[in-house]
Amino acid sequence: MLDRAGSVRAEGIAADHGARMDGIYRTQRHIYDATRKYYLLGRDRMIRALDAQPGCSVLEIGCGTGRNLIAAAKAWPGAHFCGLDISAAMLETASEAVVKRGLGSRVALAQADATRFDAGRCFGRERFDRIFLSYTLSMIPGWELAIDEAADAMAPGGAMHIVDFGQQERLPAAFRNGLFAWLAHFHVQPRGDLRPVLEDVAQRRRMTLEFTPLYRGYAWAAVLRG
């Protein structure tokens, strides 16, 4: 548990991160989806695997422009969706996109820090049947805390789906080095220790873990089940 000083430090880190994300995406958000579709691989695979049957509640952590929420809402029309993001600029774009596609009654959005959020305050719901994080952990300081926060918000028998950059382990070293250097310009850091962190979460919480490298290690996909 954080003491008051620790809580203040955490709030400061969150505020700095939110301001940084707004600074990066205030302009980029307008072209984000058009450009990212070429290298944020595995997102639609994850959405197809959600199995969000009618009545399911689904939360996306780090929803950005709302692209994934909209795709998931179309793929699973009987489910209800919520999305949170730390960037006010991204949420503005997401809100406009959700309304434009007539999904305002099925998709709720809130600004919150992935490492410490109150789902009840944000959405009037404490637990979700499905939670997903798409290329988010590689951008979150204290990303391990975000995984634990997501696990706290999982309903009994629920599932958490993750897709993010892998370590390019079966791709040429030059490609890996070039990609990582380019990603660093956007404060993106692929998490090489993602698997052991998830294994620890699964053990502590008595969950099962499925971990799948995709596209020769370009991306990693994981599912934690309660």
Distance between the termini: 23 Å
Main sheet summary:
7 strands, mixed
Assembly form of the protein: single chain
Q: What order do the strands of the largest sheet run in, or round the barrel if closed?
A: 3-2-1-4-5-7-6
Mean pLDDT: 88
Radius of gyration: 17 Å
> What name does the CATH topology carry?
Rossmann fold
How much of the residues is beta strand, in percent?
15-25%
CATH class, named Alpha Beta
Low-confidence stretches: 1-13
- Structural class per helix/strand content? alpha/beta
**DSSP strand tally:** 7
* Residues in helices, as a percent range: 40-55%
Tell me the count of domains: 1
How many H/I helical runs? 9
Full CATH superfamily name: Vaccinia Virus protein VP39
> What overall geometry do the principal axes of the alpha carbons give?
globular
Key structural traits:
226 residues, alpha/beta, Rossmann fold, 7-stranded mixed sheet, 9 helices, 7 strands, 43% helix, globular, disordered N terminus, Class I SAM-dependent methyltransferase
Structure, explained:
The chain has one domain (4-225): Vaccinia Virus protein VP39 (Rossmann fold), CATH 3.40.50.150. It has a 7-stranded mixed beta sheet, sandwiched between helices. The chain is globular, with a radius of gyration of 17 Å. By secondary structure, the protein is of the alpha/beta class. Helix 4 (67-75) links the parallel strand 1 and strand 2 (80-85). The chain has helices at residues 4-28, 32-36, 43-48, 67-75, 88-100, 119-123, 143-152, 173-184, 194-205, and strands spanning 57-61, 80-85, 107-111, 128-134, 154-165, 208-214, 219-225. It has 9 helices and 7 strands; from the N terminus they run αααβαβαβαβαβααββ. The protein starts with a helix and ends with a strand. Helix 7 (143-152) runs parallel beside helix 9. This is Class I SAM-dependent methyltransferase. InterPro entries: Methyltranfer_dom, SAM-dependent_MTases_sf.
